[in-house]
Amino acid sequence: MNDIQVMNRAADNIRILAASMVEKAKSGHPGGAMGGADFVNVLFSEFLVYDPQNPKWEGRDRFFLDPGHMSPMLYSVLALCGKYTLEELQQFRQWGSVTPGHPEVDVCRGIENTSGPLGQGHTYAVGAAIAAKFLQARLGKEVMNQTIYAYISDGGIQEEISQGAGRVAGTLGLGNLIMFYDANNIQLSTKVDEVDAEDVQKKYEAWGWKVLHINGNDVQQIRAALTEAKAESMRPTLIIGDTLMGKGAMGPDQSSYENKVSTHGQPLSAAGASIAETIKNLGGDPEHPFTIFPEVEAIYAKRRAELEAIVAERYAAKKAWSEAHPDLAAKLEQWFSGQVPAIDWAAIQQKPNQATRAGSATVLGVLAEQVENMVVASADLSNSDKTDGFLKKTHAFVKGDFSGAFFQAGVAELTMACICIGMCLHGGVIAACGTFFVFSDYMKPAMRMAALMELPVKFIWTHDAFRVGEDGPTHEPVEQEAQVRLLEKLKNHKGKSSMLVLRPADVEEATVAWKLAMENTSTPTALIFSRQNINNLPADTDRYQEALQAAKGAYIVNEDANPDVILVASGSEVSTLVEGAALLRADGIKLRIVSAPSEGLFRAQSKEYQESVIPTGSKVFGLTAGLPVTLEGLVGSNSKIWGLESFGFSAPYKVLDEKLGFTAQHVYQQVKEFLA
């Protein structure tokens, strides 16, 4: 066999494995995996640079799969690389398997991202490319010279998030990003040209991409395109590869089953094709489909030897660089460890009685100076969500200059969130992103994926309640806190809360919230801040020292002996309870006031501590600017909650406080009625 014949043989091997995995599982998507086999074969056997012995090597290239349903293709090519056994491929989609239906991040096996919702995977790749540029600007090309590859399908191109990803990558000139578009004109239930008449090439060229159009099943054209893309330094490259859905698929009568919608989302046999005839057509043995051909094994053994030489050279360069720049070498090690440098949180001086978004800005100013590998983003709201506290100490990324540490995402909340996820997936970068809390609705798919991947993205949400005021119900979050706290209640694979959610009650709690967020390296964190000023909570000693108790999720702000009722809230409502408490105490009612910024943290404490703060069976009054359900998990059965049960209204926020019942007088009335 000549070189091309052997490469085609390897692609056919991937096709056989992918189709057989789906067939054995009686579930999955074989067609796209069969069509894309040629590209991933060339990429993994000739271009992708990684260390077979050290999969977490920070200088490796990274491959981000967008269409997660094409997992059989990825698992199969990784089996050729030695990352999966043939037995593991046969457990595709089974309980406890390492080959789930959609890939879940596992760097040691070559899976760089969990991919499911279309469009997110290649947007992560944009974030990884930004992270690589950011780190290269600080550490140098000797150690940060990787290429980020992405694989996208027709569905991902159509998802709205692709517009944000394409715009950002082109605007920033991400020449280290190469994306393959598997253009097979087939979707799950239709052909692409039935729902989409746009010119994809012109669209990406308009965004500033280099675009190459090839036969995506031709080895030589794939090689040439990847080589040309690697030579491009100032633009991201899109390789549009025209491929055949179900390439090589055959019917029982040996008729072609290529280019059929039916092979997209079900086993070939269910689509009317014959798995046996398909395997024979691709040069395999239907009796033994889970086989790696000897000549294919030789290709990947050769590549492993090449990689060993490439990596040895890179490591030698890194060693020389480390010796010449020990300070930078120490930073690289710390940054990729995920740990945050020591910060004197107690030394942060907050101006009292300010909005918690202002308290967040104060902290961000400190972080900008003390955390060199932190990137903060905003969706065109930095002067309102107060992420400009960070921006004022640095500058934004622009094409050709990644020496700054701020990402101006434009009006694209979901894109921004997924790009920050991509930065975290790349490693070495701490990412945070800000917008108004009501716009967390746009970000829900990304929040969920960050929680699923256990990534420490910091979500900064301001304007946390109806006190947005005159902007009216479209901009006033009511149900958003309840939605976000569902992730606080949901357990991740480690049995822990899948998101840390913090809504601080004053600026000192805002400092503590940021402290907890920066120390949290195992899940995403939601930081929910107010627009309006909030009076600092009363303190017997140093307010910051008392606010440190927020680390327990809920704590006693102040109390009387043998309280008649416990008042519970988070955020700005705590200060409203304090004001109402003065009226109640004047009537001889004994109180305990509890600030509860995080139910998840509170439920992680010992039962003894929980009982010491909110004893079971005690009378509890809860106040929330969101839905009453927000507090139901905290207050127990012997309780009353005052919250919102409708959308907001357009009016000055102090008028809304009065009309909606968020005043000291109304707290007094509600508690009196409750106790009566």
- Unreliable residue runs: none
The computed structural class is: alpha/beta
Span of the ends, CA to CA: 91 Å
- Mean residue pLDDT: 97
Strand content: 5-15%
CATH architecture of the largest domain: 3-Layer(aba) Sandwich
Instruction: Output the number of helix runs.
Output: 26
* Level-1 CATH class name of the largest domain: Alpha Beta
For this structure, the CATH topology of the largest domain is: Rossmann fold
- Structural domains: how many: 3
DSSP E strands, number:
16
Largest sheet features: 6 strands, parallel
Described by the principal axes of the CA atoms, the overall outline is: elongated
Return Rg in Å: 28 Å
Strand order of the largest sheet: 7-6-8-9-11-10
Proportion of residues in helical segments: 40-55%
CATH superfamily of the largest domain: Thiamin diphosphate (ThDP)-binding fold, Pyr/PP domains
What does this structure look like?
With 676 residues, the chain is of the alpha/beta class. Helices cover 43% and strands 12% of the residues. It is built from 26 helices and 16 strands. Helix 19 links the parallel strand 10 and strand 11. Helix 3 runs parallel beside helix 4, helix 6 runs parallel beside helix 8 and helix 12 packs across helix 13. The mean pLDDT is 97.
